From TrEMBL:
Keywords: Isomerase
Domain of life according to the entry: Bacteria
InterPro entries: Chorismate_II_sf, Chorismate_mutase-related, CM_bact, CM_dom_sf, CM_II_prokaryot
Name the UniProt record assigns to this protein: Chorismate mutase
GO biological process per UniProt: chorismate metabolic process; salicylic acid biosynthetic process
Presence of keyword Cell division: no
Keyword Membrane set for record: no
Organism in which the protein naturally occurs: Homoserinimonas hongtaonis
Length: 110
């Protein structure tokens, strides 16, 4: 049992690291989608783009299969993200532009 505990702790630390990376990547993604939302609002485009969303679903389902991940899970995950993005775009359109930072805000840090 003593041999299992260090391995278990190591695996959990790896999971924690991946979770942190996922959060950082989602934050980065939302910076870009907020910029997209601003462009859509400025150009009178709708918050939702069903054709783009369908292409993304198909692409992520394929990536999921290639990565030995359940494509249904990948689709649900993307749908959850897209729903939040659309919500952000609607808020931007309504004048609430302080959802997440602009990607150009990080340019000074680079």
């Amino acid at each position: 049992m003593n041999d299992v505990n260090p391995e278990l702790l190591s695996l959990r630390q790896s999971i924690d690291n991946v979770d942190a990376a996922i959060i950082h990547m989602l934050a980065e993604r939302f910076k870009f989608t907020q910029h997209v939302g601003r462009l859509k609002a400025a150009n009178g485009l709708p918050s939702s783009d069903p054709a783009r969303e369908q292409v993304q679903i198909e692409r992520l389902r394929e990536l999921a299969v290639e990565s030995n991940l359940d494509p249904e899970f990948a689709e649900k995950f993307l749908n959850f993200i897209v729903a939040e993005v659309i919500h952000h775009h609607e808020r931007i359109r309504n004048g609430d532009d302080e959802i997440v930072a602009d990607p150009s805000d990080d340019a000074e840090d680079a």
